[in-house]
């Protein structure tokens, strides 16, 4: 069996899990937030945290491990501009996740546990949702642009 094809299959699986989870999670979190129901929002927030740590992390790990291994076929990570762009966009997305999205999610999850049985969702939670939505949009667009470089390999 060709090792490159195995790596490529794992890489594509990682991309599907990663992009699929971040897109779907953003959608159902937005829908849950719009209900205004503290119980629904709290439940959705709990699932956002769980699915991000399971699926987004798994997908990112598969991408981060298999990408550089496959890059050797093209002369290494720094050999082609499309590889550098792809890696740069992936790292930029990861930085947004680590610096903004994960801390905001943790704060929101803690708040959601407290307001799940209350009548109102605190204004601070809604403000954090605005930050999460904006940073999440950028962190999602970057890997979508990355997909262009990985598929078309422009010079």
Question: What is the share of helical residues?
Answer: over 70%
The rough form would be described as elongated
Q: How many separate structural domains?
A: 1
Strand runs, count: 0
SS-based class: mainly alpha
Which sequence of SSEs, written as H and E, runs from N to C? HHHH
Compute the average pLDDT.
95
Report, as a whole number of angstroms, the end-to-end distance.
Answer: 30 Å
Cα gyration radius (Å): 18 Å
> Regarding quaternary structure, how should these chains be classified?
single chain
What is the count of helical runs?
A: 4
The main sheet comes to:
none
Give the percentage of residues in beta strands. under 5%
**Poorly predicted parts:** none
């Amino acid at each position: 069996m060709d090792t490159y094809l195995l790596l490529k299959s794992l890489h594509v699986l990682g991309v599907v899990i990663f992009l699929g989870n971040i897109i779907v999670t953003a959608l159902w979190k937005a829908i849950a937030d719009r209900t205004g129901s503290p119980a629904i929002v709290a439940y959705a927030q709990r699932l956002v945290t769980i699915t991000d740590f399971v699926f987004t992390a798994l997908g990112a790990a598969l991408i981060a491990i298999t990408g550089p291994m496959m890059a050797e076929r093209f002369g290494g990570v720094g050999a082609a501009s499309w590889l550098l762009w792809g890696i740069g966009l992936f790292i930029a997305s990861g930085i947004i996740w680590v610096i903004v999205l994960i801390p905001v999610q943790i704060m929101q999850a803690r708040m959601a546990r407290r307001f799940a049985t209350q009548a109102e969702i605190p204004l601070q939670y809604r403000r954090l949702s605005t930050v999460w939505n904006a940073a999440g949009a950028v962190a999602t667009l970057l890997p979508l642009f990355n997909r262009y470089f990985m598929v078309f390999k422009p010079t």
